[in-house]
Specification:
Elements (H helix, E strand, L loop, with lengths): L1 E12 L2 E12 L14 H9 L1
Antiparallel strand pairs: 1-2
């Protein structure tokens, strides 16, 4: 059972595309971590998920 599900999420800052078509599903009991280089969109993704 998905407790978080997003499909085709895109975020732009002016002409810069920070996220392009992100799909994510987190099921009950699963734990995920966000890792990646600076500027990869980790914080932007989490802020969108938090609303």
């Amino acid at each position: 059972m998905a407790i978080v599900q997003v499909n085709k999420v895109t975020k732009k800052f002016g002409s810069f595309t920070a996220l392009d078509g992100i799909d994510l599903e987190v099921n009950q009991g699963e734990v995920y971590g966000f890792i990646g280089p600076n500027g990869a969109g980790k914080t932007t993704t989490i802020r969108i998920l938090l609303g």
